[in-house]
Amino acid sequence: MTARSRRSLYSLRNSNPSVPRRRSQKQCSRLDQAIELASSRYHSLLHHTSDAVFLIDPDSGQPLEINPEGEKILGYSQSQLQTLKLSDIFASREKRRYLSLLGRTLRDGEAQEQNLRMRRKDGSKRSIHVRARLLHLGGETLVLGILRDLTGTRQTQERLLQKNLNLQLLNRIVHQVSGDLDLDTMLENILTTLLSTFEADGGGVYLKASESKELELCAEQGIDPELRAQIACVLPGQGLIGRTASTGQPRFSTQLSKDPRLLHPAVIARGWRSFQAVPLIARGETLGVLFFFYLRERILTREEVELLLNIGRQAGSAVERAELFETIKLQHQVAEAGHRELARLERMKTNFLAMASHELRTPTTCVLAGAELLKEKLDETQNPEASKILRVIHEGGLRLQHIITETLEVARIESRGLELHPQRINLPELLTQVCLQSRKNMDERGLRLIQGPTACPPTLRADPHHLHRTLNRLLENALKATPTGGEIHLGARMIREQELETRAQILERFRPGFLVPGRKREFVCIELRDTGIGIEAEEQLRIFDKFYEIGDFTQHYSSRTAFGGKGVGLGLSLVRGVIEAHDGMVWMEPPADGGPGSCFHLLLPL
Fold this sequence. Notes:
Strand order of the largest sheet: 8-7-6-11-10-9
Oligomer: single chain
Distance between the termini: 74 Å
CATH topology of the largest domain: Heat Shock Protein 90
Shape: flat
Low-confidence stretches: 1-7, 349-361, 550-556
Mean pLDDT: 76
Helix content: 40-55%
Number of domains: 5
Structural class: alpha+beta
CATH class of the largest domain: Alpha Beta
CATH architecture of the largest domain: 2-Layer Sandwich
């Protein structure tokens, strides 16, 4: 094409008015696409983040935009939230804290607030942690708020606090029932403590009469004499009291006036509305019933009823002891009729008192001593009476301390409050230390403890304290399950996740979802095998449950090494909890060679 032709074409294009219009349209289209892409990214970031995010007007404090996670926390949609006042979300004090947070953010560029209480749409409260940051978007200034719901953590702390309070109450009751053999005084003390603790308006204690099947009202508070005469006796099976006595199960009512089980309508005229009864049990037998009532509607929680049942067992044992003591006094009075009979009854009384003191009072004192000592240790304060208590019975105190310590550790694991401090540890050295510590108990029982090869990398990243205690618990369990002359093998090896897939059916029973097909993780597998009594297939999962071994309390040995001895059933539960806290798992199965005993496997990721 010649230069003249090109000039002609250029002139033709410039003379066409549609050319610049098409260029402008293309530029606008590109700008629209860029705006749409930026908007898409903005909404994606805002609506797909796992945190609750708010965009807030810094002047009014009003939320301008909220993502779905924020809607979940408050229960309001974005459109609903924008029509609310701050007083609808915050109480007056919390509103001041919120506005103060915004002020600090405007001044410093960022700020945060712990445990800010917000009111949800359904009226419930939420404790949240807020991190706020100042944003400058073009000519607009906003506050970005990121919220984290702390309600679950707060509830866990409150549950642990309540458990501590329950332990203290149970300890007070144990102290009262062990400190006095006078039945009337003991029952009055128990009633006073419980009515005050549970804020009841009155209550009482029925005991089975020795001469008949009737239940007699032996102690009461808050009941006028006329009504007391009407409800003085109850037959087993009659009314709420009688049914509690005959079944050994607690009974409650929140509307006595409409309850068909009500035996004495006269209580309605006195304003009784809610009612709770629990049995007093000793050695599996119901000796009486403890009850209290409210002049208002009151429903006890499951934890409160469980606490009352524990108190009922403690009080039942104390009633049995007091009644035995009364029987001895009666026998002594009868023996005064003759010198020979007196001498015979005196010997009987002396022997019986010695037996009762050993079999009844001493275990109760041990429980009290251990509980008092544990309470002071938990508070991390020095009790001046601690040394005196330890002198009374040191072994019982240590045993109870061990049980409660393990119980609290289980609570920490369940609430995800177990603190791990992983560090590199030498696994062969750790296994050797554990074996050396257990060697004495093994030798005393006539058992062989064999430490096998550790076919895996020598170093492992884990919490050495918790892993050491876990291996000790596992060895202790094997020690009690293996008869004299048996063997216990402890070793470790490396295993890949692909190899575990061949046992996926077994592993899925013990920790569902642990294996992920295609994932290429490596583990250290610690194996402990014993030649003991073994475990039935239907019980292999249950042995890792809390308190599974409680069973018959007469089989609970104070020794932690005797063959066949049972503890409170926390050892294997703690083994599983600690290993799973390390992102591992534990399972058991019969030995691969078909021999006697059990084989436990602990997986720890490398």
